[in-house]
Every structure is written in structure tokens, then in C-alpha cells.
Amino acid sequence: MYLTNRFFSALAGLICFFVLAFFVPSLLSLSIALAMGLLLVTLWDVWRLYRPDITLTCVRRLPRLFNLGDANVVRLELQNTSPLKLQLTLIEELPVQLQIRDFTRDAVLAPGEEQTIRYEVRPTERGEYTFGATNIFIRQVLGLVERRVIANPSEMTVGVYPSILQMKQMELQAFNRTSTLSGIKKIRRIGHSYEFEQIKNYVRGDDYRSINWKATSRRGNLMVNQYEDERAQQVYCLLDKSRSMRLPFAGLSLMDYSINSILALSNIVLGKYDRAGLISFSDKLGAIIKADSRPQQLQKILTALYKEKERPLEANYELLYFAARKLITGRSLLLLFTNFESAYALERVLPVLRRINRIHLLVVVFFENSEIRQFAETPPTNLEGVYEQTTARKFLAEKEQLVQKLSQYGIQAILTKPEELSINTINKYLELKSRGLI
Description:
This protein is an alpha/beta fold. The protein has helices spanning about 5-25, 25-50, 165-175, 215-220, 255-270, 295-305, 315-325, 345-360, 370-375, 385-410, 420-435, and strands at about 1-5, 55-60, 65, 70-80, 85-90, 105-110, 115-120, 125-130, 135-140, 145-150, 155-160, 195-200, 225-230, 235-240, 250, 250-255, 275-280, 285-290, 335, 360-365, 410-415. Strand 9 (about 135-140) and strand 10 form a beta hairpin.
């Protein structure tokens, strides 16, 4: 049993009456009467609150898994099976990773009423999240006393995986040709791929250069060759999990942004009938999944990404070159998710990247500091702000020079904001595929 703020407010008012009774003796009898009344009302409130027929049920509904970096909905299903109207305050014991210590929800339930309370959690770390009990504080109409009821006493655990929700959204935009959703670019195809699909009747708009004259002479109608995108091409995502990927933006590290993007890209690659693979590295090799297009390949990639952890050491690019030579058979498209904060950092690994690019088609994906970009676009208010803004713009210009440096050696590059990583990476894959470079 808990005494509420309303009770203490009433008690404070009663004390004021007793203090005034020292100066106005006629108020003493009134103060005593009010004290007896407060005691009786409190006892009556306690009796109503602890009646045997006061029953309340609360069931927590969790999704099968949480999506990293997305809003995930948790539901609390309440039912008042008592004959009295109840006022509730719910306090959830949320997972420690969320660092939320002030979670409360209020509700009012009529007799026999059912109500569902929904709230969202946004996990920013992969792993297992454990929910504790739901503490429900029940009050009657007077609200002088509260009674605590503990619901969901057993711990409930849910895993936080790379965002499947973002993966499905990217899939919808990439494969729905009639969609007007923004993000995935429509790439103009120059020429066509080399894999023949079928011969079909000519319709207005077909490329006249694809007319099959032999079939046309046999059928007496214009016939054209139809081609399709080449399939079974190998696409590897190379994940750098060194300390340079621990930089956080909007609660997520660059590595977590890359993990969500790799899952979305792998789904698109498999949907295009190509073979998706994964290699993670830092000072040593991590997960290695050979490129494949089997139905269980996406689940294997998802499980591997779920287990990945950042390492506090520098990345070993010589080890990456070894993996590209020995573990990847045949020319493949390699998308390297990493980050370079300076030209010196790129210069150190550029010889290795050039060697990898000779045997594979390499795309280096690194990040623009969106917070510095936002700061650089804010008008300065004083002389010190001018100097700081100039330094910020110099830093951004240096990042753009890194893209030009890579292009000089024939290495594809993507400089992107963390929140636009998935869209820009998928666009690059579709562009390279439409140009026949892989």
C-alpha cells in the first residue's frame, strides 16, 4: 500500500488548520473533525481498494524480434474484471540497454473494460533485450491510497536483429516498377545485357536494333530478341568492424548503419538472382559466408550480422587482400563498408585497395559527417563561428577529395550520409549491373 500525493496534500491542509487553531481557538474542533474525516475516508478508500473482487489482468505482447534502429511497438493488454472503476499508473521495467528510467503510462478502466496501451522502443544495439515486470499502481476515485499489482513477473527476452523492416522497404522500392516511392533511382540502360531470354513479337517502343531478321522472315511479323540481366554474379559485402566504425550518429554506430544496409542490399542481390556473400574483418577475419543464392542464404547473413561486434583496433587491409585473393573465386563485385576521416588514412590503405581492384570490381563506401555538414550550413554569429565554419567546410571538402582520389585509380566510391546509406548503396549496385560492369 502506498500513500499518494493527494493524501499528503490533504494532510498538509489539515496541519495548516491545526496551526491556525493556535491563533483562533474556535478552529480546533473543526480541525479535529477534519482529521477524523480524513482518517475515515482513507480507511474507506483502503477497504474499497483491497476488496477481494478487485481483479486486473495485464499481458505484455512483444514482437518476435526487434529491428535495429527502428521504432518497435510493444502492447500491454489490460482488462478490468472488477465491479469498480480503476485508475491506473503503469511502470514498465524496460531493458537496461534502453536507459529509460522515467517510463510511465496512465489509464482509466471502467468495470469490465478492456484496453490496449501501445508504446514504442528504438533499440540502438544488437543483442538480447530483457523486459522485467509491469508494475501497476491502482487507485479508486478518491485517490488517497494506491495498491501495487505486479504483472508479467517472469522475464521476457527478445533479440534485436539488423533491421528487417528497412530491408522490406528497400525491396518494395527496388522491385515495384509502378511505385512512386522516392529513393531508388531509375537507371537508364545503355545497350542491353548479354543473356538471351526469348524471342517475342515487336511492339512499339522496342529497340529496333534487337530485331531478329531470321525469325521475322519465318513468321512474317517483326520479331525481336529479348534480353535479361545477367544472373549468378557474385556480390560480396566487406564489413570493416574496426574502431573507425564506432562513430555514433542518431544513436547508431557507423557499423550498425552498415549492417542494416548490408542486409537490405543482400536481399536485393538475391532478388536479382545474383549470389550474395559476406566477409567481416578488423585486425583479424570475422564472419565468412561464401557467395550463394540458395533460399537460406539471407538467413545465414542475418545471423552472422547479428553476432558481429566492434573491435577497438585498426583494420588490417593486408588481411582483406588475402581474403579477396584466396576466399573469393572469380571476378566479383566487392562493396567495402568502411570510414576514412582524413586523406592520410586513405593513403595508408590505397595500395591494397588498388591491388584488390585489379582482380575484382571494388566499391568503397564511406561516410560523410552529417553533423559537421549541418554545422557548416548554419550561418555564423561571430568571428569565432566564422573560423569554426571554415574548418568544418575544409573537412567536408577533404572528404570529397577522397572520392576523387579513388576515382583516379579506377576505384568506385560512395560518400554518403549514414541515414542514406542503404538507398545509395542499392542505387550503386543497380547502376553497375545495368551498365554491365559486373
